[in-house]
Write a structure and sequence with these properties.
The complex is a heterodimer of chains A (155) and B (107). By secondary structure, chain A is of the alpha+beta class. Chain A contains 4 helices and 8 strands. In chain A, strand 7 and strand 8 form a beta hairpin. In chain B, a hairpin with a 2-residue loop joins strand 1 and strand 2. In chain B, 25% of the residues are buried. Chain B contains 5 helices and 2 strands; from the N terminus they run ααααββα. Classes of the chains: A alpha+beta (155), B mainly alpha (107).
Chain lengths: 155, 107
Amino acid sequence: MEHKTKIHTEDGRQEIQITREFDLPVELLFKAYTDPEIVEQWMSTKVLKLENKQHGSWQFETSDPKGNVVLKMNGTIHEFVTDRKITRTFEMENSPFDVQLEFFEFEKLTDDTSKLSMHIVFRSIALRDLLLQMPFAQGINMAHNRLQEIVNHLK
Amino acid sequence: MELRRDVFQAIADPTRRSIIALVALQAMTPTAIAENFDSSRQTISRHIQILTACELLGQEQYGREIYYHINAWKMKEVADFIEPFRKFWDDRFDKLETIMKKYKPKK
């Protein structure tokens, strides 16, 4: 079966390519990435800041059901072209992962369909492989809880 | 501490993740790794041993010193590992699509 979301990795390269086709006009796909209220819904996170412009920055915060902050993410926006492209950095605070560089390309396929290509560059191959091996299967929350433990140790 | 060969168990420990993050930047001797932690040299050795047992770390001898480095996974293994990652993004994108299909622009 052909998967809707495809992940492309190559041995010996510190990057990942994620592609996905949507039954959505490209304008709506782009909006899902730039409207804070919508980002909050599908990313299940709180948007503290999202400045959709060159030299802008962003900041998200995810909490567990009890309201404890379990994950903080932030970055800077380097390039912003409406309905076409977003280039940004991504950092998971208090994690072993270094800053990542992310290129999002939005492409119109037909009036009602579009494609997203996400190109993520890591500091090293090992960090890429480590991220891919995080326990996603058991839910990203487990990873978040672990990160919270690390944060608590640092306090 | 029992010896575990499961990769996910191995990286669930914060100290071991920190060790991986350190060695990811350059191959290091056990002494150099231990210097980054407050734990005893023995505790760190045990962590290194677990990471080596599940083949996350490999070792090479240079002269009298042993250096630990990150093991590069074989393509097939990486492909198996990335399925949960792919599924994670697939679910997120499904959610995005569902939300946007119902979206009505504010006039």
